[in-house]
Each structure stands twice: as C-alpha cells, then as structure tokens.
Design a protein that fits this description.
Layout: H1 2-15, H2 18-26, H3 31-35, H4 37-64, E1 85-88, E2 96-102, E3 105-113, H5 116-124, E4 129-132, H6 133-145, H7 160-170, H8 195-222, H9 243-251, H10 256-262, H11 268-280, H12 305-315, H13 318-323, H14 325-329, H15 339-351, H16 362-369, H17 373-388, E5 398-402, E6 407-412, E7 415-425, E8 434-443, E9 447-448, H18 451-464, H19 468-471, E10 474-478, E11 483-484, E12 500-504, E13 515-518, E14 527-528, E15 542-544, E16 548-550, H20 553-561, H21 565-572, E17 578-591, E18 595-597, E19 603-605, H22 612-627
Parallel strand pairs: 5-17, 7-15, 14-16
Antiparallel strand pairs: 1-4, 2-3, 5-6, 6-7, 7-16, 8-13, 8-17, 9-12, 10-11, 10-12, 13-14, 18-19
Helix pairs in contact: 5-8, 6-9, 7-8, 8-9, 11-17, 20-21
Length: about 625
C-alpha cells in the first residue's frame, strides 16, 4: 500500500507543471497556520490594515511635505549704491523793471535791471551741470530765488568769502573727511574767451563751490555714507531732505567759519577721536615684527618665544615690568615656555584686555605687534563717520553699547557711572546698529520666541519630534490666544509664517534670565539677563541671536530706573512676571565702533568682528569714484 501511494504522488508530481510546484511551495502552511488557522487569519488581516494605513500616511506626507524647508532670512550686506546724480537747473529770474529818471522827474521809459548772475545765465544758455540728487535740488532751489554771485567778483576771481571756504575744504582730513571730495577747479580763466564762454566759466566756478560747500556741510553733519544702504543691520534716519535748509544757513551766515565748523559733532567722544587722528600724523609706526602664526602653549619649546618676551618688555606697563622684574631680568632667550613666563604673559594679557589664559596665540601676537598708524587712522575716520549718524549730543544720561568692545556703559551727568561686559549676536545673527529710547524693565519675563528662531531652529527639531516644545516647557498659542499642544501642530505645513506664537515661561531655564530692559524697535533687540553666565569669561563674546546679554543686568536696570540693585532684586524675588516703566525715557545707542575713546580720553582699537569696517571702506571708495566727476561732466 505504501508503495502505491508513493508512486501515485510521483506520477501526479510528474504531471504538474513547474510554476504550479513553485506556487505550492510558496503557499506551504506553517505549523502555526495548521494548528491556529483562525488566529492566523485575524493576524494577517490586522497586518494588512496597518500596512494600508501606513501607505495612506506616506502618500499624504509626500503630497504635503515641502520639497525644501523654508528658512527665515536674516539681514545681509548690500552692494553699496551711491546717490544718483541729477541736473542743476538754472533759469533767469523774473526780470525786474526800473524807471529811468530825467532831471528831477521820472520818465515813462522803463529799463531792464539784471543782476550779474542773471545776465550770465541768459548769456550762457544750457550749462548741463549735475550733482547728487539732493544737492542738485537744493542748489537749483537756492539760485532760483537768489541770483547773486556769492563766491566770485565781477571778473570771476575768488572773493575773500570764497578763499575762507576753500581753506576749510582743504583741511577736511583733520575731521576724518576726504579733501578730494570737495575739489574745485582753481585754474585761471583761459585767455581770449567769448562773452558766452566767460559767462559759462563764471557760473561753473560759482555753482562748483556752492555744491562743494554744501556737500562738505552735509558730510560733516550727517556723514558721507547713507548707512541704511550698507546692510539690513543698519537703521538710521535719512537726512537728505535737510540739504536746502543747510545751504540757506551757509549762504546767509555772517560768520562763515563758525557756521561751517558747527556742522561737525562737538561731543567729547568725537573730539577725542579728532585729537587721536591729529596725533597719528606726527607719530612713526610702533610695529614689532612677530610671526603671525605663532602658537605656544605652556612647557612647549618655540623659536619665537624670545621675540614675544622682548615685545612684552616693550609693551608692558611699568607696574607689570616691576612685578615680574626678576623673571624678565634673568631671561636670556631660552626657548622653553616655563611657568614663570606663563605668569608674565597672563599679566600682559589681562592688562591688554585679553583672556588671561597664558596661551600665546593670534590675539596676543596681534596686540604685541601693534597696529600700523595707517590702519589706526582708517579706524578713526570710520568711527568719526559713524558718530555723524547719531545725534551730535548723545545726552547727559544714556546707555552706550559698543559691539566690537563687547561692553555696555551707563552714562550719567556726562560721566561713566557703570560699565559691564556684554554678549552680542553671532556673525550669522548680528546685533543691529541703531539708536532708540529705553522705556521699561520686565521682571521674570516670558521669552517670546522670534519667528526666525522658531522657523530656522525649532521647526527642524519639531519635524523630528512634534512634542519637542511641550517637553521643554514652551507654550504654543494661536493668535486668538488659545493655548495648544505643540504635538497637535502639523509641522510639515507650518512654512515661513507660522499661524501661532511660541513663548518660554519665566523660570531658571528662561533664555532671558530674571529681567529684560526694553526699548521697543522693529529689530526685536533688547538688553537682558541670561542663565549662561560662563560666556562672560570669554574674550570674544558673540554668541546670541542678536539681543544684548548683560553681565550685571540688575545694576543696569537699577541705573535706568534710578533705584538700587536691592530694590530690583526684591521685585524679582516673588517670581511673578511684572513690568515697570521708566519715569523718563533713556537714550540707548546699540553701536559699532572699532576705535572708541575710553573714560580717560585714550582711544582703544577693536577687531572688526562683523567685517563692517571693510564694507564701509568699499562704500567710501564707491562714493569717492562717483564724486571724482565734476559737475559739468
């Protein structure tokens, strides 16, 4: 019997095609299927339903998923655009009539009375003169109503008023300006000119000097460069509209020298920069040749070490040299960077405002080597330019933040009453350059997460984990005020403009610490506390998203409110969010100066942390090139 069955199978097998055999093998049941057939079917159906659900979700994600996550763009530098030139329009003034007298009685014959300038305008015809648009408009408007020569006599020679002005223009460099920007053709009139040519030469000489004087006055008062055309980080009032009133002040002045000098800032900081610039012109470069790539750690041997120690002997203060006299006196050029020499270097680093870590690197070498006078002069000229963008009097009471210096100062009665370290924006999130007024102090603040941080930083993390914000204690609110869970947000469809706001509640982990000092502005920049205190120990402190973190925020809050730190701390202590307004607003300058006078009047120089000096220099070069074109070309 067994043999028959086996043969039957074999015969049957021989009659089945190969695909059927393969299909049968694939459908071969497992022991679980045979013993628990119903349970297997239920499991299979569940698996099929889950797979179908996954397929639907994946399809929906593919349909809604952005091809590229959009990021909020931060500000950037611009290619500087110089002011466009426009025509200077001169037209003869309305003709004035006068009665010709015969004997004692006036006759009925009317004679035309023309001023010398009006007559020359009539003779000259179209002059085709051009200048920067705001200057051209002001000059055109002035001579429309005032057709007299101000700078030349009847023969076209410069008068005493012109000679005074020309001397002032030639000394523009002493104020950090470029004398070449105010050049006027001083050559003699060509001989044997026609009457029309003489008229044209006289008009050209008159209008050229008027334009140069007005340009000088505008540059002296408001700056050569329009800062808002440098980058999105600059935000200052544009003053071009004041050209006409400035020109009227000049032309009507009885004390012209005083008037021209009055256009420059007269505050003590500007005058200190001016004095430093004058001093540099009579000082030879004090540069020490050191290898810029030098990097020496304690206990290392280095061939450049003797040169470094010699430089410290030259640069160090009297107190430093006296304190470390024995070490320096006994040093004979050996190459080992011993612990005794490390102490000397640390002392110099601290004295020079560097981080006293004892490592001889780029910053220490740069300080020891010194800055060439030419580079210092450029930094001074740039700082004088930037001061012109500000009010000429900063105020007897104000807060001044200098980003390259990483320092904030509170000034009261014109004196420095408070000074502290600050942390400012990193290069990708630069702190803006502007001025405003402090209005209030907020204790135990909420942190409203800026849109740029929400989109650029929190969105990618929330795509990976929708509950990211919930888990870290942030609150998400619809614009109608309703609080929602971050895990309920469809993060793939948030885009560049979220339809909700995010804030961090007060507490020890809050990014703003215990208080913030507000001067409401469109850049959302303010001063505040921070839980990250260790950053203040670093020499270079560009770590924030743009706001200014204060080393001693309670002291600054007490200063602007006119109270004590003890009082400020008592208002923080309850842990409740509270706002206190200043009785009178305090000006605040969020500024950028790579050369800045200290309280004692000495000028210190700082690194161009955001490369804004380099960008401003490019703008000056573009302006200089545009101004090299004369008004009649």
């Amino acid at each position: 019997m067994k043999t028959r069955i086996l043969l039957g199978v074999l015969v049957a097998g021989s009659m089945v095609s190969a695909p059927v055999i393969a299909d049968a093998a694939q459908k071969r049941k497992t022991l679980f299927e045979v013993l628990f057939n119903k349970a297997h079917k239920r499991k299979l159906k569940k698996k099929q339903r889950l797979q179908a659900l996954r397929d639907q979700q994946n399809q929906r994600l593919e349909e809604t998923r952005p091809k590229k996550i959009v990021k909020v763009q931060t500000s950037k530098n611009y290619a500087y655009r110089v002011v466009k030139r426009a025509p200077i329009l001169l037209a003869a003034a309305p003709i004035k009539f006068a009665l010709a007298e015969t004997g004692n009685a006036p006759s009925q014959v009317e004679t035309v009375k023309l001023s010398p300038l009006t007559a020359d305008i009539v003779n000259a015809g179209n002059m085709n003169m051009r200048a920067e648009a705001h200057l051209a408009e002001a000059v055109s408007g002035f001579y429309k109503d005032n057709q007299d020569y101000y700078w030349i006599d009847e023969n076209g020679a410069w008068n005493s008023r012109a000679n005074l002005v020309l001397k002032v223009l030639s000394e523009a460099e002493t104020y950090g300006l470029r004398a070449s920007d105010y050049n006027v053709d001083m050559s003699e009139f060509p001989s044997e000119l026609t009457e029309k040519a003489i008229s044209r030469e006289k008009i050209n000489r008159e209008i050229s000097l008027t334009t140069a004087v007005l340009r000088y006055a505008m540059d002296a008062k408001f700056g050569t460069i329009n800062p808002n055309r440098l980058s999105g980080y600059h935000d200052f009032p544009v003053q071009y509209g004041k050209a006409s009133s400035i020109l009227n002040d000049i032309m009507q002045s009885s004390i012209l020298l005083h008037t021209l000098q009055s256009f420059h800032p007269s505050n003590e900081k500007f005058m200190a920069l001016k004095r430093e610039l004058a001093k540099l012109r009579n000082v030879e470069d004090d540069i020490i040749e050191l290898d810029a790539k030098t990097f020496i750690k304690p206990r290392q041997l280095h061939a450049e070490l003797p040169n470094v120690i010699m430089a410290i002997k030259k640069r160090g203060s009297k107190e430093l040299l006296e304190t470390h006299f024995e070490v320096l006196d006994e040093y004979y050029g050996y190459l080992e960077y011993s612990k005794e020499l490390v102490a000397v270097v640390k002392a110099y680093q601290k004295e020079a405002g560097l981080g006293p870590d004892g490592i001889i690197g780029r910053n220490t070498i740069t300080k020891l080597a010194g800055i060439p006078s030419e580079d210092k002069a450029m930094k001074l000229a740039l700082s004088m330019e930037r001061l012109r963008w500000h009010p000429h009097q900063l105020g007897e009471r104000h807060v001044f933040i200098n980003q390259p210096e990483y320092r904030a100062r509170y000034i009261e009665n014109g004196k420095e009453a408070l000074s502290m370290r600050v942390v400012v924006g990193k290069k990708s999130n630069q702190t803006n350059f502007f001025y405003d007024e402090i209005e209030k102090v907020v204790y135990n603040p909420y942190w409203g997460v800026p849109r740029s941080i929400l989109v650029n930083e929190f969105l990618p993390k929330s795509l990976q984990n929708p509950g990211y914000l919930d888990e870290r204690g942030y609150e998400v609110h619809r614009f109608n005020g309703k609080k929602i869970s971050s895990s309920s947000v469809d993060w793939y469809n948030v885009g560049e403009h979220p339809k909700f706001s995010v804030r961090q509640v007060p507490g020890p982990k809050n990014a703003l610490g215990k208080l913030k000092i507000l001067f409401p502005n469109k850049h959302a920049i303010y001063m505040h506390d921070t839980p990250a205190k260790s950053l203040f120990k670093k020499q270079h402190r560009a770590f924030s998203h743009g706001c200014v973190r204060l080393h001693d925020p309670q002291a600054m809050a007490a200063a602007v409110l006119g109270t004590s730190k003890r009082n400020i701390n008592s208002k923080i202590a309850p842990g409740k969010n509270k706002t206190e307004f200043l009785s009178s607003k305090v000006p605040v300058y969020v500024s950028y100066f790579t050369a800045w006078p200290q309280e004692d009047g000495t000028v210190k120089y700082f690194n161009d942390m955001y490369a804004r000096d380099a960008h401003l220099i490019k703008a000056f070069k573009a302006t200089e090139k545009a101004r090299s074109t004369s008004i009649n070309s």
